Automatic annotation (TrEMBL):
Keywords: DNA-binding, Repressor, Transcription, Transcription regulation. The keyword Transferase does not apply. InterPro entries: HTH_LacI, LacI/GalR-like_sensor, Lambda_DNA-bd_dom_sf, Peripla_BP_I. GO terms for molecular function: DNA-binding transcription factor activity; transcription cis-regulatory region binding. Signal peptide: none annotated. This is Ribose operon repressor.
Length: 343
């Protein structure tokens, strides 16, 4: 025989209070004495009571659920963003529905429709398309993450400080004697590519280096994209050591695969710097030196910003999260050697 589900009446009886007092204590009402609240919470735990969030939502107009749409759940960076958002939502006793658009605008739109049907209280979105013209289509409070968000100055958004990150990476390369790195970047359709290259250009000009001399190879933001881009670079005529700064760690690890495929060594023949800080970079051989984005912090901060949006306290601006260097073994130190152009 199925056991009866505990009710608020069971909690009230065990705590020795009225049903209304028990309900207000569990709802966090400020008028309840701390001693009474603790007694009610202990009673709820003892009888195994769980609040009916659907009923609470019907009374409050809130569902207690948020949505998160990221472009690639298989990419460890985006998985880390999702984990940060999940943890922060759980702290607030809120559920988070996570969707992966797989870089497909049609899937993204389908996920947004699903979130509206689920009556989530708000959504965090990394738009697949950089041409996100109709922000009102969300029809609910939202916060943007990722590169596309910077185009919308009047919308709350959270993301990495790409300029700071690129300069951090280039300064480290210069300290190792790599003054003109080759760049592996994303597709021309992505705003992230433009931001990355703009930061490189500004840094180069400050150091009196002509940005036009830097070799740039496009690729997809995947292992295979980085591998193919690196193979194309290795097919070019070159002189001396090659240094590569990849726009994400997946591409950097793919580049390492291509180096081995051609019978070369990293970092003896080719130095590689990544960007993201995904955990797998610690287990490559050699370990991948990278600029780590604060993925988990971005997810948590985006949830906090979304809470403000829901409560009518919008930030309406960009929150830039600083990145940090993780120095491993994928960069050769040429600083004591005569300066050569990297290709």
């Amino acid at each position: 025989m199925r056991k009866r589900r505990p009710t608020i009446i069971d909690v009230a009886e065990r705590a020795g209070v009225s049903k209304s007092t028990a309900a207000r204590a569990l709802a966090g009402a400020e008028s309840i004495l701390d001693e009474t609240r603790e007694r009610v919470l202990a009673a709820a735990k003892a009888v195994g009571y769980e609040r009916n969030h659907l009923a609470v939502g019907m009374r409050s107009g809130r569902s207690g659920m948020l949505g998160l749409v990221i472009p690639d759940i298989t990419n460890p960076f985006w998985a880390d963003v999702a984990r940060g958002a999940l943890d922060r939502a759980a702290e607030a006793d809120v559920s988070l529905l996570v969707f992966s658009s797989d870089w497909d605008p049609a899937k993204e739109e389908s996920h947004l429709r699903a979130l509206r049907r689920a009556r989530v209280d708000g959504a965090i979105v990394n738009p697949v398309s950089d041409a996100l013209d109709d922000l009102d289509k969300f029809g609910l409070p939202f916060v943007l993450i990722g590169s596309s968000a910077e185009r919308f100055a009047d919308v709350s958004s959270v993301g990495s400080d790409i300029t700071q990150a690129v300069e951090l990476g280039l300064d480290h390369l210069v300290s190792k004697g790599h003054h003109a790195p080759t760049l592996i970047v994303g597709p021309k359709s992505r705003l992230a590519r433009t931001r990355f290259l703009n930061a490189v250009q500004r840094h180069s000009i400050k150091r009196d280096v002509d940005p036009a001399q830097l070799i740039v190879e496009d690729g997809e933001y995947t292992l295979e994209g980085g591998r193919l881009a690196m193979l194309r670079l290795l097919d070019r005529p070159r002189l001396g050591h090659i240094c590569v700064f990849a726009a994400n760690d997946m591409m950097a690890i793919g580049a390492m695969m291509a180096v081995r495929e051609r019978g070369l060594r990293c970092p003896e023949d080719v130095s590689i710097l990544g960007f993201d800080g995904i955990p797998s970079g610690a287990f490559t051989f050699p370990g991948l030196t990278t600029i780590a984005k604060p993925g988990r912090d971005i997810g948590a901060r985006a949830v906090e910003s979304l809470f403000d949006e829901i409560e009518g306290r919008p930030e309406h601006g960009r929150v830039y999260m600083p990145c940090r260097l993780i120095d491993r073994a994928s960069l050769a130190d040429l600083s004591r050697e005569p300066r050569k152009l990297a290709g």
